[in-house]
Amino acid sequence: MTKYIIFALVIVLISCNNKSDVPIISNASIEIDGLFNEEDWNNSRTIALTSNNILYLAQSGDYLFLGIKNAENVGRYVDLYLENEAIGIVNLHASMALGERELSDNWNDTIPAWNWENNTHWTANIIEVISEDEEIPFLESVKPYQGHEFRISKKKIRDTKVKIRFEIKDFVGEANDIIFPIKSARSNSEKWLKVELE
After folding, report:
1. pTM of the prediction?
2. DSSP codes of every residue in 79-116
3. 92 Ramachandran zone, left/alpha/beta (phi>0; psi -120 to 50)
4. Mind listing the pLDDT tens digit for each residue in 73-120?
């Protein structure tokens, strides 16, 4: 009986830990197009963000791969935050353009200003407009996509440890934001997901 209690406690402790093991994949040629080829992400770690959104994590010798697959009928974009001692806090943005900025005290959505198309050592899929017709739903006005895929060079992270946080928002502002980790705060990385790399 004692063995079972100890086992249950170990499971609880593991589930409360914000640390993520990131599998190494041999196929490091994931196409960053937002269409989630199942074969590409087959051996990755998956985390349910909501009942309709899944986070995929994988790594190769040179890259960290992150995918956020969306099964809702909502057009979303992503702000990804990375933090460690080597880089401080960096905000990567993927929507209809890619942007990056380094964050320090008293930052918000517009301060410091974005440095658009400055995505050195990382990439993500962008959302492409295919129709300017404002009368049609947003998802019909853009090229089909299933979410966002990121490929981040380990040169960008500059360490084997990094904390990550996502804010996943609706382009038209009707659906609720998805924050992951759910109880994390922008201003404090203590509850961000801890990722260890090879």
Report:
1. 0.88
2. EEEEEETTTEEEEEEESSSEEEEEE-TT--SSSSPPEE
3. beta
4. 999 999 999 999 999 999 999 999 999 999 988 899 999 999 899 899
